[in-house]
Amino acid sequence: MSIKYIFITGGVVSSLGKGLTSASIGHLLECRGLRIAMLKLDPYLNVDPGTMNPFQHGEVYVTDDGAETDLDLGHYYRFTNTPLSKLSNTTSGQIYDTVIKKERRGDYLGKTVQVIPHVTDEIKARIRAAAEQEKETQVVLIEIGGTVGDIESLPFLEAIRQFRYERPKDCINIHLTYVPYLKAAGEVKTKPTQHSAQILREIGIMPDMILCRCEQPLSEEIKAKISLFCNVPLDAVVDEKDVAHTVYEVPVELHRQGLDEKICNMLGLKSGAADLSRWEKMLHSALHPKGKVKVGIVGKYMDHQDAYKSVFEALYHAAIAAGVSLEIRRFESDRIVENGSVEKAIGGCDGYLVPGGFGERGWEGKVLTAKYCRENGLPYFGLCLGMQVMIVEFARHVLGLENAHSTEVDPNTPDPVISMISEQKKIKELGGTMRLGSYPCVIKKGTLAERCYGKNLIRERHRHRYEFNNEYKTAFEEKGMVFSGTLERGVLCEISELADHPWMLGVQFHPEFKSKPLDVHPLFKDFIKTILLEKAPWPASPRLTTA
Ligand code: GLN
User: Fold this and answer.
1) How far away, in angstroms, is 386 Cα from ligand 1 center?
2) What tens digit of pLDDT does each residue of 402-416 get?
3) Is 436 near ligand 1, meaning CB less than 6 Å away?
4) Is the peptide bond before 217 cis (omega within 30 degrees of 0)?
5) 409 lines ligand 1 (CB under 6 A)
6) Which of 190, 282, 297, 382 is positioned for an S-S bond with 387, CB 3.0–4.6 A?
7) Same domain for 320 and 469?
8) Nearest protein Cα to ligand 1, atom 3
9) Backbone phi and psi for residue 509, each to the nearest 5 degrees, phi listed first
10) pLDDT at position 496 over 90
11) 283 CA distance to ligand 1 centroid (A)?
């Protein structure tokens, strides 16, 4: 049977949750036993989001093969088991980069190089590459970033029009739109949806299904109107109303309306009924928590909803697994220093997490957070920069190296406990210069890390330039720091933890990228579990208090 393709476009406004919807559809198809692949096409000209400010673009999601990708791939990872790699995210920047390189090489044999066919051909080649990534793929879901009507996304839409023209039986277009309720008029409005379907038709794309984002379920009358004006059968107008509690309800809601069955019928896909039992069990636990944990996250993009997306999700997965609800308190690290009192600024949480980050801003507030947790026996989880902060804090206040720092912030520090590995020192330009992607790590026996993972060889994903400086290793160990994870066949420190503390652990990698609600990351799981066990006060060890 030929591979089937589902193109997902968005209309009316951005931020409708196209990524979540695509991931949910992928999930439902997998629940029917189908093998899927997913691809996100992003219309911006950056080659990848790696160099974009998190305020602009939210989190950069990293795959095993080291691609810096759109955060929607995080949704794909959490909702499905599809393979994700650099083939799963393509930007206009990559497409143009390839086309221009080919032109310079003379691959176009003197032809005039144009958006159609050269750019569109390259887009189609990327879709085929995503489909061919695995032999058994049956369905490919292709999400097109942006909103129809944007100038940027036109080449992508033209490419999917052609793709379908070449495989009329194997493709469908699902258009996600917004159907607002106007309070003043007391009415639900279909006109924006009609207009965005019209734009698609002008480009030559007929939607097969309209998914309507809305606040309340749509009446049959409204659905009939959308059906008639948008030229789709009535049963192909599906509402996707706001879910009450968690995004993990979305697949269940869509399944309730028979979405997966409809898609399979349209594409002539034969499969069993969807088995959502594991997902529903997880959801039941998420919706019926018994107890609560309060975790403080100390970062520097706290006002941005999506800057630490995977971190929030991974904590939530662990809370669901522990059967409790999660309250996240967000702290801007800058303000901790301004405030003068750490206790006043961030006190009152059951545990703290310091996520990854770049640059100088916010460092000292994070150092104060690590100190506060170490001295008060409060669980501390440091991710990437969060581990580097934990190292610097320990160097300053336990080893007495008061000007210790990371060379990222202070290149002239007398004690560069975090610095670049020498071969990276020569690399000057930004973009693609980091330790990126999956690396194997050996876990030391008898450590907290071993307790969490339950094994001694793991693989985790990295995205950083700086490393622990092993010249200081012995000094740290003598004072109670345990280097519990080391790069396999290498010396780089990947995990550090405090021996005499309930849970103080930092990782040089990003475990948050590898947590799913149905496969919770072991470090997050143990962090939350320990918080629940350790709510009782803990006497600070004299050995670890400030030097
Ligand atoms: N800025 C630090 C580095 O480059 C940490 C990066 C991160 O937290 N992802 O090493």
Assistant:
1) 9
2) 999 999 999 999 999
3) no
4) no
5) no
6) 382
7) yes
8) 464
9) -105, -170
10) yes
11) 34
User: Is ligand 1 within 6 A of the CB of residue 408?
Assistant: yes
Say whether both 220 and 87 belong to one domain: yes
Helix runs in 439-521, H state only: 448-453, 473-478
- Please provide the size of the chain in residues: 547
- Note whether 17 and 124 are same-domain residues: yes
- Are 321 and 249 found together in one domain? no
Atom of ligand 1 nearest to the CA of 418: 10
C-alpha of residue 407 to centroid of ligand 1, in Å? 11
One domain for residues 257 and 323: no
pLDDT at 305: 76
Instruction: Answer with the one of 259, 282, 305 that is the final residue of a domain.
Output: 282
pLDDT at 546: 38
Q: Where among 243, 267, 282 does a domain terminate?
A: 282
In a domain, 127, yes or no: yes
Count the domains in the chain: 2
Q: How far is the CA of 311 from the centre of ligand 1 (A)?
A: 15
Provide the pLDDT confidence category of residue 239 given band limits of 50, 70 and 90: very high
**What is the per-residue pLDDT across 257-298, written as a single tens digit (0 to 9) for each?**
999 999 999 999 999 999 999 999 999 999 999 999 999 999
Among 301, 384, 508, say which to mutate for ligand 1: greatest number of ligand atoms within 8 Å of CB: 384
Structural domain span for residue 51: 4-282
Direct distance between the N- and C-terminal alpha carbons of the chain, in angstroms, rounded to an integer: 69
Looking at the fold, whether 86 and 169 belong to one and the same domain comes out as yes
CATH number of the domain that residue 103 is part of: 3.40.50.300
Two tokens at 434? 């980091």
User: What's the mean per-residue pLDDT of the chain?
Assistant: 92
Between the alpha carbon of residue 291 and those of residues 13, 282, 329, 531, the distances in Å are 38, 16, 17, 12
Measured in Å, residue 447 CA sits from the centre of ligand 1 at 24
Collect contacts of 438-443 with beta carbons under 8 A, ≥24 apart: 438/64, 438/65, 438/66, 438/462, 439/487, 439/488, 439/494, 439/509, 440/487, 440/488, 441/485, 441/486, 441/487, 441/488, 441/494, 441/495, 441/509, 442/485, 442/486, 442/487, 442/488, 443/484, 443/485, 443/495
Instruction: Evaluate: CB of 506 within 6 angstroms of ligand 1.
Output: no
Q: Is 382 in the pocket of ligand 1 (CB under 6 A)?
A: no
Q: Is 467 in the pocket of ligand 1 (CB under 6 A)?
A: no
| Whether the predicted pLDDT of 422 surpasses 80 | no
Q: Is the pTM of this model over 0.90?
A: yes
Q: Which residues are catalytic?
A: 384, 510, 512
- Of residues 543 and 350, more confidence is placed in 350
| pLDDT > 90: percent of the chain | 83
Cβ of 308 closer than 6 Å to ligand 1, yes or no, is no
